[in-house]
Amino acid sequence: MNKKWIRTASDEAAVKAGYRMNEARGRKVCEYFADVLRHSKGKWAGQPFKLLPWQKSKFIIPLFGWEHKKTKHRRFNIGYVEVAKKNGKSAICSGISTYLLVDNERGAEVYNAAGDRKQAAIVFNEARNMVLASPDLKKWLKITDSQKRIDYMRQLSFLTVMSSEAYTAEGVNMYGLIFDELHTQKKRDLWDALRYSGAARDESLLLAVSTAGWDQSSICYEQYRYAQGVLEGTIEDIHFFPLIYEADPKDDPFDPKTWRKANPGLGVTISKDKMAQAANEARQSPRKLQAFRRYRLNQWTEQEDRWFPPGVWAKCTALKRRDDPKQWRDEQLIELYGYQCYGGLDLGSTSDITALVLFFPHESILLPWFWVPEDAMSDPKNPNRAQYRTWVDQGYLTATPGNVTDYDHVRADVNEVGGHYRVLELAVDRLFQGAQLCTQLMDDGFEVIAFGQGYYSMAAPCKLFEEGVLSGRFEHGRNPILNWNAANVAVKTDPAGSMKPTKPGKSSPYKIDGIVASIMALGRSMLQEGETNECNVTVI
After folding, report:
1. How many whole angstroms separate alpha carbon 79 and alpha carbon 88?
2. How far is CA 340 from CA 337, 345, 421, 422, 522, in A?
3. CA–CA separation, 5 and 492 (whole Å)
4. pTM over 0.90
5. Residue 331 to residue 272: CA distance in whole angstroms
6. For residue 275, what is the enclosing H or E element?
7. What region does 451 belong to: left with phi over 0, alpha with psi -120 to 50, or beta?
């Protein structure tokens, strides 16, 4: 198989799982656009819908071309595509909608969805116009405008509109769901109701297409961060299709090279002159600059700064991609037996991850353990449940019985760890200082130290931690949960420049527990061991 189709670690995993790229199958969809569909508006009205190079090679061919060698089923069941406005995404969504409708799936149910009916109708109306402009589709399909519905009677299939204003998930047997401008979805009800409505079909496809938004507690931001994780390799999901065109927050917003990053259709679907005009207006107004960043550069606005740029954490490892992180970790567990260390324990919420990290100052190693309630892995409202199941199976995460973290189980494990290593101090969030578990651990002989989560306590260890990551001195051995935490963590700064870690949004489902525990352990070591900024930290 041509290596150009291997973009991510998930692609490599898919090949191992029996999937391959059937480029001819993907190109067949591109030919459908060009041979069957016609543009219905603008300067291309009436002309064949010829996809742009990026739309072919980055979007349509990989989305529809990957298939299983034996079953021939398409690989991707869910996807997230994010690109700046005026790059033709709504028209592509309309074209995909009609393709799924006539895709030889008996009784196919295809939906155009959005936060409100008006937004959902945009993609549907363009699909309707494409049908009317196509001699072939016009013969096969029946349009009922009053119901916003298109029927393919030969296959008993239909395409219609669905919005969060009026929907019912009862009886839905989705084959295709195109969710336009997901960032406008204020509540997650519709998404959650339809997410698994295609489970009975082998090749169902839920595709969300959007521009950047601002609400970091939204379902859209959740999907955006998940897609980022798949692209960067911190999340492995062979059935999730990610495609993001965005400018880096550190890029010069007025540099034409920056514009190209978020606008692959620049010069075709959006003119360079109009981009330059919008950039010039943004120079004059902070409000317009915010809008320019969001709509033209596809940057999420009004959010905390992500601590580490993409790829920086991943470079802090001597392991090659095909080395085994689990084997390396097991070896380190044995080699460090009896060594002295400092611990950080982030108890977090009783309904989600608890993290313990030990820092061995003389060996410069961070060693993590993680726990999660067993029920969190089956809760349909928990977007992290699939990852949790994988990590439990791999031995990186321990599931405790019930729907809340079993602190008796955590206590027993911490005591077992304490029997293997000399834990000089165990730092715990000051808010949990009086918690029963902390009291019990003190009774067990641990020196439990209250560690504040504000700027005063976090500033110095955060600075040391940051310098170690950015300089590449850390070695994390690709522990997948710590990788995920590092990809999620954002940073807040006060006027003096002091830092503290934070989640990317108040209601974000993305966890940073391992990073917080690491910083606390490093902080206690700095005080007791006189650590300097030259320490060489290894994470396993």
Report:
1. 17
2. 9, 16, 6, 4, 13
3. 38
4. no
5. 56
6. helix 272-284
7. beta
Whether residue 374 contacts residue 400, with contact meaning beta carbons closer than 8 Å, is answered with: yes
Range list of H helices, 401-479 = 407-420, 436-443, 455-471
Taking alpha carbons only, the member of 490, 464, 432, 434 closest to residue 359 is: 464
pLDDT of residue 535: 42
Instruction: Fill in the amino acid letter for 224.
Output: Y
How many whole angstroms separate alpha carbon 225 and alpha carbon 489?
Answer: 11
User: Helix count (H) and strand count (E) of the chain?
Assistant: 20, 20
Stretch among 80-84, 87-91, 378-382, 474-478 having the lowest mean pLDDT: 474-478
Class of CATH domain 3-245: alpha beta
What would the two tokens of residue 255 be?
A: 């540099």
In this structure, whether the domain defined by 312-539 belongs to CATH 1.10.10.410 is answered with: no
- Distance (Å, whole) CA 443 – CA 441: 5
Residue 479 has φ and ψ, to the nearest 5°, of -55, 120
102-111, 301-310, 340-349, 426-435, range with the lowest pLDDT: 301-310
SS3 content of the chain, % helix, strand, coil (to 5): 45, 20, 35
Strand partners for 143: 150
Structure tokens at 146: 């009053």
Greatest Cα pair distance, the chain, in angstroms, is 80
Give burial (CB, 10 Å; 0-12/13-18/19+) of 200: exposed
Amino acid at 354: T
Domain boundaries, the chain: 3-245, 251-300, 312-539
User: Is the predicted pLDDT of residue 285 greater than 50, yes or no?
Assistant: yes
